[in-house]
Amino acid sequence: MLSSTDLSNRYFTWLQKSISFEQLNQTTTRIDVPFLDSFSDELVIYAIQKDNGQLILTDDGWTLDNLAGEAVFIAHPSKEKTQLHQRLRAYGIVCEDNELKITTTLETFAQRMHLLLQTIVFVNDWATLSRSTSTKTTTD
């Protein structure tokens, strides 16, 4: 018989084995997660502790820089950029210096990390679909 407890345990065991936390210095931790971007690279985020005790979670610019490398430019003013920033705000994410970031505390760290990961996956999917749609439209 299929047990929800067994499924839950298997998923959390896999997740725990697949995620890694590496202390880079006194204030920065690198977090590698088993979720993939549109280039099949595992996602990496950084947790940076501020003097006031808050944490900044960031992709360090990886998401938008990779997309720009594939000729998907979100930095230029456009309808798409406006839509993207509306979506980011809905998740509580800000885009500064090409980095996707969210501020959190230790108490809300897990939830905010999940929101940042969701956003990174969304941005990759959204940009990839936008690019394939615009390419298809211009070649028809």
The percent range for helix content is: 40-55%
Strand fraction: 15-25%
- Biggest sheet overview: 6 strands, antiparallel
Structural class: alpha+beta
CATH fold field value: Yope Regulator, Chain: A
The end-to-end distance, rounded to whole angstroms, is 52 Å
Which CATH architecture would you pick? 2-Layer Sandwich
The domain count comes to 1
Series of secondary-structure elements, N-terminal to C-terminal: HEEEEHHEEH
Please report the total strand number as a whole number: 6
In DSSP terms, counting alpha (H) and pi (I) runs of 4 or more, how many helices? 4
- Indicate the overall shape: globular
**What is the typical, i.e. mean, pLDDT?**
84
* CATH classification, class level: Alpha Beta
Q: Mind explaining what this structure looks like?
A:
The protein has 140 residues and is of the alpha+beta class. The chain has one domain: Yope Regulator, Chain: A (2-Layer Sandwich). Helix content is 48%, strand content 24%. The chain is built from four helices and six strands. The chain has a six-stranded antiparallel beta sheet with strand order 1-2-3-4-6-5. A hairpin with a 4-residue loop joins β1 and β2. α3 runs antiparallel to α4. The C terminus is likely disordered. This is DUF1828 domain-containing protein. InterPro entries: DUF1828 (IPR014960). It holds the Pfam family DUF1828.
